[in-house]
């Protein structure tokens, strides 16, 4: 009999949330995010150092014997909720979740794997998985790179956070390789993404040398993408919660005809509907995080359900945030557009909702939706 998932937050998780929220409030307010988005370096190295090294968040999923914190996906989900609330420009999802889980899917007794995991967990090295941001768990692992005796060649487009990475995990025909971004034969060309807080890049390898970490990339990459998709739902949840809270605050303060616009029945219905969606999204996201943390056999289904639902809720919440703010919501100075862009970009990251809906149908043996 499958154990019932624990959807509640523990005291330790609440304490972690408070610590992360306090740091982000101090270092990552809307003005700071906008400033970074307009610059050539979207990431704040000091913020990342505080998150990854001082708070030890980069190694939450890495076992203590390998230099990490030995926590679970539940704690990582709480961190991502807070990062989503502030649309923080930090490579946490790609490095501390996707890359870390990919490395944990390799043989951690191998010196090269253990060394890289330790550097990632300690915040000394930023690692990114070199696959397109749209790559979905369960799909065939992208293999755009060919290998010839450790020499790699190929081109991978739309790699998230490649520009911030020190090391790339590159799936190739004969295994998974670790390639330093500053090595000869490696070119990382920045793209112009919809979401300026999560930069994309095209990675070109031309005779680049890499260390082979695993003889097959399939299992490690699928593990990384599954965890990434499952915890992306928590980022989407945090984003949707901020949008709802901001809409309620604004419509309470904004007056028209000498009364708060939030008192108008039509807007009450829209916000009530959004509240119901956010509450349901929280249940789906927490279920996915708990399934991953406990190693449940239902984890692929829980992740697919969470992504199917949370992606749509995040986009709807961000759209409502822009619209219910009226004219000010359309301006660059107001942060609503940052949340809408992040929600839209997240909705196609690690598998679009339609792809996850198909996965749900396959796993529960239902006819695929038309």
TrEMBL record:
Its cofactor is FAD. GO terms for molecular function: oxidoreductase activity. Its EC number is 1.-.-.-. Pfam families: Acyl-CoA_dh_1, Acyl-CoA_dh_N. The keyword Metal-binding does not apply. Belongs to the acyl-CoA dehydrogenase family. This is Acyl-CoA dehydrogenase family protein. It comes from Streptomyces flavidovirens.
